[in-house]
């Protein structure tokens, strides 16, 4: 092949120059303008040298910039022709310049719309991904950042920047002191993640993807964040949808990541809640930023003293446990143990400013304290209506809680349930497992099951249909159960799962004991952990069947009902039983939103009255 000609080389050079964008086009128009000005001036000098070259140069330049200037020319003949040609050339140049500037401005606006500029912030919270969880996370972070003047949340998702901002404004009316910045990009691409400046963030929250395999997306995002060269120093939180992917996710995230198993966590909560009405309200209050929160506090004034003193040393804060100097979290520790230097108290308080050491002596009324042991566990009957990915874990967890001789019946028309129940049946240690394949929305079927004979009923959302349809079927089942309970003048202990938090209000009509919204609770947990990574250990222990957990126990086991009492006395009664009390529930208010009768972290000095059937909320081993 012969060497390129001069024309080809020139054309190649010109094409490369033009490909540089708006700046190159403006540069070429400037060069053409100057060239046309010089040529016009040169011709004017030749035909009419009255103004000299400098004056003629200026005159030519004015004709190029302003076409109306030609109307004031009084020269005739060749000079008029030169000025006319120069003016026409100027019109072409100015039209081209306007077109270039308009195109460049549109391109710049489009670039800004795409959200591809760097987020120049520090100590902000980064959210990777987009789902319904994002609105819960933003709402909680807004509450958490209310005391900060310039809090920032940076969101990176594979969606249009303006659409994200509009949807956030629509669903979250008041952002208070928090500013939300959206960027468009792949939340698993290191270059895109770099746009939200994670290297200077205080935490990174990875949302559960809506893709077919959300755990694969999570692992990719973890690798992109922690191994992508962004210099991550903050902690990263996320949740896997399937427990078998937890080791891979934790390996991808490294030490900086706190990864939870969403299905396992919700299954544990479902089992605990079905056996204790009101527990989901307690967990929601602990997990959100709207009420009382868990704080880690170092209290040098209590070093070397028994933890029983720490229990009564805070009037407006509730003692829950200890975070040792080695980083080990102990919930409901023996109160005879002493607090060591470097240890931190785990306290429940309305705000960190409310944690004040009370030097006064607590007032404990010995006359109302009841010394009564709990009744032993008895065999239970549990009915599970529906099936989803966490059903297997629910059965495994039930087997760890119920007494020998208990029976669990599963009724569902989910296609995966028969084979799953067949495999898990032989692994049950203390409970019997029965299965019936049928439609849980069928009234005749529900009546044949005699739901009043069960100690606990769990209604699950099926995951083989769309979330809204799953919630609709669950609502139909709950309404049937409510009607059956009213007709038989009895009460069923029902715990239900909602896929969408917006349907929880509708579900209140069914009068079930508790509603669990999986996505909401997982979102709350991730947000709390992002703000305080030590809380992952606290909630890990609370949700585990080993060690101490949250229980709602009869108030008459602790103090005499119908007698004025303060919470110092209630806490002391619980301490003598090896338990830690941090709230109570008034059963008469169990149907009233938003607290449903639950009072966490009450003022220990104020008196109140408990009635038979009310509950004390405690941390206990059983």
Automatic annotation (TrEMBL):
<keyword id="KW-1133">Transmembrane helix</keyword>
<feature type="domain" description="CASTOR/POLLUX/SYM8 ion channel conserved">
    <location>
        <begin position="264"/>
        <end position="355"/>
    </location>
</feature>
<feature type="transmembrane region" description="Helical">
    <location>
        <begin position="81"/>
        <end position="105"/>
    </location>
</feature>
<protein>
    <submittedName>
        <fullName>Lipoprotein</fullName>
    </submittedName>
</protein>
<dbReference type="Pfam" id="PF06241">
    <property type="entry name" value="Castor_Poll_mid"/>
</dbReference>
<keyword id="KW-0812">Transmembrane</keyword>
<keyword id="KW-0449">Lipoprotein</keyword>
<keyword id="KW-0813">Transport</keyword>
<feature type="transmembrane region" description="Helical">
    <location>
        <begin position="25"/>
        <end position="47"/>
    </location>
</feature>
<dbReference type="InterPro" id="IPR036291">
    <property type="entry name" value="NAD(P)-bd_dom_sf"/>
</dbReference>
<dbReference type="GO" id="GO:0034220">
    <property type="term" value="P:monoatomic ion transmembrane transport"/>
</dbReference>
<dbReference type="InterPro" id="IPR010420">
    <property type="entry name" value="CASTOR/POLLUX/SYM8_dom"/>
</dbReference>
<keyword id="KW-0407">Ion channel</keyword>
<dbReference type="GO" id="GO:0012505">
    <property type="term" value="C:endomembrane system"/>
</dbReference>
<keyword id="KW-0472">Membrane</keyword>
<dbReference type="InterPro" id="IPR044849">
    <property type="entry name" value="CASTOR/POLLUX/SYM8-like"/>
</dbReference>
<keyword id="KW-0406">Ion transport</keyword>
């Amino acid at each position: 092949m012969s060497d390129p000609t001069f024309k080809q080389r020139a054309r190649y050079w010109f094409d490369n120059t033009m490909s540089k964008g708006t700046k190159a086009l403006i540069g070429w128009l400037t060069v053409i303008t100057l060239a046309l000005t010089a040529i016009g001036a040169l011709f004017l000098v030749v035909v009419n040298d009255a103004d000299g070259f400098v004056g003629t140069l200026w005159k030519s330049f004015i004709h190029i910039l302003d076409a109306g200037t030609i109307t004031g020319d009084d020269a005739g003949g060749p000079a008029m022709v030169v000025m006319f040609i120069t003016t026409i050339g100027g019109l072409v140049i100015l039209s081209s310049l306007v077109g270039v500037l308009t195109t460049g401005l549109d391109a710049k606006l489009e670039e800004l719309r795409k959200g591809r500029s760097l987020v120049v912030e520090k100590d902000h919270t980064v959210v990777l991904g987009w789902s319904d969880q994002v609105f819960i996370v933003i709402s909680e972070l807004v509450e958490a950042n209310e005391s900060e003047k310039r809090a920032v949340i940076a969101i990176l998702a594979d969606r249009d920047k303006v659409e994200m901002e509009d949807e956030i404004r629509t669903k979250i009316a008041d952002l208070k002191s928090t500013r939300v910045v959206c960027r468009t990009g792949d939340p698993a691409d290191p270059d895109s993640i770099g746009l939200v400046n994670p290297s200077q963030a205080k935490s990174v929250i990875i949302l559960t993807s809506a893709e077919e395999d959300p755990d694969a997306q999570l692992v990719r995002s973890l690798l992109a964040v922690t191994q992508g060269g962004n210099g991550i120093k903050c902690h990263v939180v996320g949740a896997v949808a399937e427990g078998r992917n937890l080791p891979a996710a934790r390996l991808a995230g490294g030490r900086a990541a706190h990864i939870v198993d969403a299905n396992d966590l919700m299954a544990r909560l479902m089992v605990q809640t079905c056996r204790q009405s009101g527990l989901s309200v307690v967990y929601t209050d602990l997990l959100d930023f709207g009420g009382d929160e868990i704080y880690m506090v170092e209290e040098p004034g209590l070093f070397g003293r028994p933890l029983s003193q720490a229990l009564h040393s805070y009037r407006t804060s509730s003692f829950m446990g200890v975070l040792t100097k080695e980083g080990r979290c102990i919930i409901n520790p023996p109160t005879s143990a002493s607090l060591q230097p470097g240890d931190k108290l785990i306290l429940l308080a309305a705000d960190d400013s409310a944690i004040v050491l009370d030097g006064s002596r607590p007032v404990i009324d010995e006359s109302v304290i009841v010394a009564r042991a709990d009744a032993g566990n008895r065999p239970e009957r549990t009915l599970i209506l529906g099936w989803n990915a966490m059903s297997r874990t629910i059965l495994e967890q039930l087997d760890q809680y119920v007494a020998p001789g208990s029976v669990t019946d599963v009724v569902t028309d989910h296609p995966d349930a028969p084979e799953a129940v067949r495999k898990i049946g032989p692994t049950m240690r203390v409970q019997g497992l029965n299965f019936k394949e049928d439609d849980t929305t069928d009234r005749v079927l529900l009546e044949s099951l005699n739901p009043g004979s069960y100690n606990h009923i769990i209604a699950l959302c099926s995951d083989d249909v769309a979330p809204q349809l799953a919630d609709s079927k669950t609502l139909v089942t709950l309404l049937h159960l409510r009607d059956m309970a009213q007709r038989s003048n009895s009460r069923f202990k029902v715990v239900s799962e909602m896929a969408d938090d917006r349907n929880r209000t509708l579900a209140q009509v069914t009068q079930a004991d508790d509603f669990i919204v999986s996505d909401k609770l997982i979102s709350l947990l991730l947000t709390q952990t992002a703000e305080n990574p030590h809380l992952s250990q606290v909630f890990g222990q609370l949700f585990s069947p080993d060690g101490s957990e949250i229980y709602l126990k009869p108030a008459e086991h602790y103090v005499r009902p119908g007698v004025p009492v303060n919470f110092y006395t209630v806490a002391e009664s619980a301490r003598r039983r090896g338990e830690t009390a941090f709230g109570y529930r008034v059963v008469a208010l169990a149907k009233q939103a938003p607290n449903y009768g639950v009072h966490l972290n009450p003022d220990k000095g104020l008196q109140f009255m408990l009635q038979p059937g009310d509950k004390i909320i405690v941390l206990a081993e059983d």
